[in-house]
Structures are given as structure tokens and as C-alpha cells.
Amino acid sequence: MLTVYEQMDVELMFLGCVMARPEWLAKSRMRPEFFQDQRHGRVFTTIKKLHESGGILNTYSLREPLTRAIGGDSKELLLDIFTLKVLPHEAFYWEWMLINWHARRKVARSYEIGVDEVEKDDPNLERIVADITDKSREAIRELMSGGDLRSIEDVSMEVVESMTGDVDTRRMFTGLFGVDDQLSMRPNNLVVLAARPGDGKTSFALQMAAHNATQGRKVLFCSLEMSATEIVNRMMVSTGLVKMAELENRTADPRTVHDAREQILNPNLKIWDAKRATMSEVDREVVRHEGLDMLVIDYLGFIDADDQRQQRYLQVGQIVRDCKGLAKEHQIAVVLLCQLNRDADNAVPRLSNLRESGSIEQDADVVLFLHRLKTFQPEYHLLLSKHRQGATGEFSLRFDAEHFTFE
């Protein structure tokens, strides 16, 4: 169990997440008594009341009611909360920790009371044991009551009803014949696409993003490696109307470029051109683009950890868990591109070749490897090496280097 000071830090992190995303309160199981610091419990109550009344949450709107609630100036406490660097989707995690600690304190306290009672003259041992048991069961019920409690009847009926429609509107596809018959990508899923440098990760991901956008799904392509101009150039080249060399040398016919532009225009596909980003910034961008179905991150190596003090493999592990949390919170598919280590050179990739962290293999729902059979040759294998909801497999692809497309 963590120290009192560490628990205080977690309570502040939780409050920071609530400040950043107050609408999450509707799903929260937290109660003021779950906080070890009573001031934090009063802050939680004040935030909840102000949000439910339609008020705006900021240091100005909270300071006066919070000062009344805690019986003193709240300025320093508010600054502590508002200056925290938090990931709003981690609120569930911090909440679970706080409820867990509350339950454990409750159990421990019941045993302490029991010991005190036993040491009295002529103790009623049967009643003492019953009290300890009842309090322990109550604490466990509080701990285990998280999540959505849903009956098999309701969930199975949703499955039956999903079979009656012509199109599964929430499933995402690669657009490649044969692959989509086996691969299932859905909201909540973290899909990892890995390859060695220069082996087509971006081309494959961009082709998949464009395909889903044409199917009416909203896609955000987070391009940390290439500029938005480079991404759009590739998209125009993929139409077959213009060549990359012509765009780079500015020798293309403007009318042809215009025609290529008309073909790729799609309001469902947005490109976020960022040099580097943290997962906090990615989360804010997802919130800004409300109603997303898919997020593509190109690529893992350019995401900075929120905590720079950790070793890189720990940072990567946290980033991957944040990606999975993002997928679950926002009900979207997150496609995360990453590199394979050098052991994958001239060899069939394996899950152990995922670079920098074993948590990539652990947390991903789907792991895809792009494997070029021979250097400078167009033949590829797409390896479906992990598939939480189905079978693994292998698919033969051909890369059209001139148009940056797989077929």
C-alpha cells in the first residue's frame, strides 16, 4: 500500500482529471468519503455541484464556494490541481485506486475495532466476528461494484440485432481483399502496425485511413513524422493522376493536380500535423474532433512521455496503455504505428521484435507486421500475429511504389 503522501498525490491527479473532463462525473462511482484528505472530498463535492448546476469550472468560479467548503483560502489548493499535467481518460484508473484504498482502510479499521473490543472485559466474540465480517463484506461490495453491470440477456440481444443490418457501421476495414474477411477492428481496439524503417507503415496506414473515410467513418491521422503536405502529396499520387517526382519538382500539370485533389477530398479525414506530441495533447485533439471512429498515430517513437524522468521502456509502456485507454474511453479504434528492432532484419517478424517495450504486445488487441520478402522488391507479407477476437494469419500483398499503395 502506498504512503499517505502518495495517496494525496493520487487524489489530486483524480481531481485534476475531473476538472479537465467534468462530464465524466456522470459515470463516476466516487463519493466524498472515499478521499483520505477531507479537503479533497469537499473539493470533489463542490466541483460536482457546480457542474450539475451548469457552471463553468475554473479557479475564479471555484474559489469562493471552495473557500466556504474547506474553511480557508482555497487559492493554493486550486493551483495545485489546475497546474497538474493529467490525462483525463486516466480518471477511471485513479478512481479505482482510491476506491480500492478506501475499501482496504475500511477492512483494516474493522479489525482494529474488533481487537479493541476483544480486549474489553467479557467480550461478545460472536458479535465482534459478525461485525468484522459485515464491514469487510460491505467494503468488498464497494470495491467490486465498478463498471457497467449488464445482463447476458441484454448483451446477447444486441449481438442478435447487430446481425440484422446490411453493414456493420462500427467495424473498421483495411480495404484489402482477403484481409478484411479475417481481421476485425472495432471501437475499443488498439491496433499496432509495425515494420522496419522504410517498409511501408505510413503508406499502409494512410491507405487504411482513406478507405475508412470513404466508407463514412471519421478518421484523424496524427502525423508526427511527415508534414501534412507530404501526406497529401502521397494521397494525390495514389490516385494515379500525378507522379511524386512531378509534385516535388513542380512540373505537374496544374489541371491534373486539381483533378487529383478533387479525388482525395473527404471531410471525414483530418490530418493533425504535429512535430512531437504527448498523450495529453493527443487526448485533447481527439476531444476536439468529436465523433471520431478511428485515430491513426504515426508513429510511437515521436510521442513524448508526460513523465520524462522515467526510463524510455517505462515511458513507452505508459504511452501504449494510454493509447488503449483512449480507445476505450472514446469508443474508437486506435492504430498505433511502431518500428521493429534490428533483429527483424532479413527475418520473419515476431512479437518479441516490437521495439522498446513488451507492453506493446501485451496491451494491443491486434498486432500487424508488414514484412518485405526481399529488399527493393514489391512482394510483402502482412502478418496478423495477434488477434484478440479471432484467428491469426498471413496475407500476400504487393506494394505499388509508384503510387504508394498496397494491393
Characterization of the model:
- It is a single chain.
- This protein has 407 residues and is α/β, with parallel strands linked by helices.
- It has 2 domains: 4-144, DNAb Helicase, Chain A (Orthogonal Bundle); 179-406, Rossmann fold (3-Layer(aba) Sandwich), CATH 3.40.50.300.
- 47% of the residues lie in helices and 14% in strands.
- It contains 15 helices and 11 strands.
- It has a 9-stranded mixed beta sheet, with helices on both faces. It has a two-stranded parallel sheet with strand order 4-6.
Beginning-to-end CA distance, first to last residue: 53 Å
CATH architectural type of the largest domain = 3-Layer(aba) Sandwich
The number of helical runs is 15
Query: So, the CATH homologous superfamily of the largest domain?
Result: P-loop containing nucleotide triphosphate hydrolases
If you compute it from the alpha carbons, what radius of gyration comes out, rounded to the nearest whole angstrom? 26 Å
Sheet of most strands: 9 strands, mixed
In N-to-C order, the SSE pattern is HHHHHHHHEHEHHHEEHEEHEHEEEE
**Strand fraction:** 5-15%
